[in-house]
Amino acid sequence: MARPPRNRLQIELASRHQRLLHTLGQRMGSAGDAETTRRVLDVVENIADRIQQGYKLAVVPADDEHPDAVPEFTRALRPALNYMYLVLRPHPWRRQLSFKGRRLTVGQFIGRMRTEKWTPEQAASEFDLPAEAAYEAIEYGEQYASLIAAEDAEDASAAKSLMHAATAR
Fold it and tell me: Which end of the chain is more exposed for a tag (fewer CB within 10 A), N or C?
C-alpha cells in the first residue's frame, strides 16, 4: 500500500520553542520532535475545525462543568486528570504518575510486574490495589513508555553516580 506523499519542513526554533516541543513530546509520549509536531498540528487542526463549526475557545478551571475545548492538550499537560488511581506527585524532576496514596510510580509497578511475571490481577493483589488500578497503570505505561524509560535511565545514572562516589571514598 502506497503512503500518501509527505512534505518536509525545516524551521529554526527559538530555545523556548525547542523546550516546549521537548516537554510536549515527553508528556504526549511521542517518539521525537517530528511526531510531537504532527500531534500538535492535529490539535491545532481540531481547534480550527471546532471554530469553523461555530464553537469558540474558552479557558476555564479544570473543575468547571463545561467541556474541555482542547482535550488533547489537557491530557498531555495534565495527564493525572484522566485517571482514577494515578496522580502526579511533587518531585524535582520525575514527571510520571504514581498511585494515589503511595510512593509507587507506574514504572516501578510495571517493572516489578514484569520481573515477577505477574498478571495485572496478581500485581494488584501484591500491592493491595484494585485490579482496575493495575490496568490503568498498564495503559498509562504504554502511552508514556518513553517518559518512563527516560526516568528509569536517570535513576540508573544517579545510582551509578552514588556507587562511584561511595567507592571513591
Answer: N
